[in-house]
Amino acid sequence: MTHTVPSAQLRAALGLAERGIPVLPLRAGKGPMGNCAACQKNVCGGRPNMQTPGPCTCPRPCHAWAAATTSPAVLKSPLWAGVWRQAAAVAYHPGGAGLTVVDLDHADAVAWARENLPATRTVTTTRGEHWIYQGTMRSVNGVRDGIDIKSTASYARWRGAGTGAMQPLPDAVRALADKAPTVARRAGGTVTVPRPAGGGDCPHRSPVYLERGIAMAEQRITAATSGVHATVYGMFLAVLSAHGRCGCLTGAHIGRLFTAAQAKGESARHCAAAWSNASAALGM
To answer: Residue 90: is its pLDDT beyond 50?
Structure first.
């Protein structure tokens, strides 16, 4: 009988799973992998850039944060064996572990956090730091220049246990998710993307109507296979046209649109520019 020696990534994943941390494999480039041979290159319809599982049955769910598990049997299953041999790194689902990661992507973001957020467990990354808090919240990208929040429905690369005592998730971090996205220019101040102020009564103030519009815009952006810049601008323009003048939009709505665009490769700066251009085109 022959025995297959687990890869370094699988050994690391099993160790984390034993500690109750849901894990998943990452390909080179930090994107999640299809976790079985049938789903390689997402032929099953999964969208790893959106961290979305596909409609596969192999075992379900197959992709991204939704596939993160603490089960050694699943991690060592034959269906996942080939994936682990190709995996470049290990990721984990912070929300599944009861955690929130504030991903600080450069030195300016780290400096801002040190001035504005309570110190907590810190993990050094290739470009900045992960600050880890105990507690969960919704995940939002681009809450400030170089700062993403990863918790529920998201994943973060495992870079070690870090240093320092982990603190409870503070209101200061939760508040970041409720603010309109901002983009800080390295030279020349800060550009803020404000919520449209609106005025008067909303002619169609309905949570269902607004939710349908935001969801449709997210869907269109996610489904774009070419012309992503134009699609993002078009969806921003459509949402602003319908809801920009009556004050329906909140920072959370705008954050969802920015998150969808960034998942397709748009930078926070490009998102802010598209939003500003759409606002200007409508005379806002």
So the answer is: yes
**Which residues have CB under 8 Å from 151's CB, separation 6+?**
94, 95, 99, 100, 101, 136, 137, 138, 139
The yes-or-no verdict on residue 136 having pLDDT over 90 is yes
The confidence score (pLDDT) of residue 272 equals 80
Q: How far apart are CA 10 and CA 81, in angstroms?
A: 9
Integer Cα distance of 265 and 120 in angstroms: 30
Angle made by CA atoms 79, 83, 89, in degrees to the nearest 5 = 140
**Hey, what amino acid is at 69?**
T
Which residues have CB under 8 Å from 125's CB, separation 6+?
A: 103, 104, 105, 157, 159
The first and second tokens of residue 144, run together, are 């400030």
Buried b or exposed e, range 133-158, using 16+ CB within 10 angstroms: bebbbbbbbbbbbbbbbbbebbbbbb
CA angle 152, 13, 86 (to 5 degrees): 105
The chain-wide mean pLDDT, for the chain, equals 79
- Strands 167-168 vs 129-134: parallel, antiparallel or unpaired: parallel
Tokens 């810049």: give the residue: 229
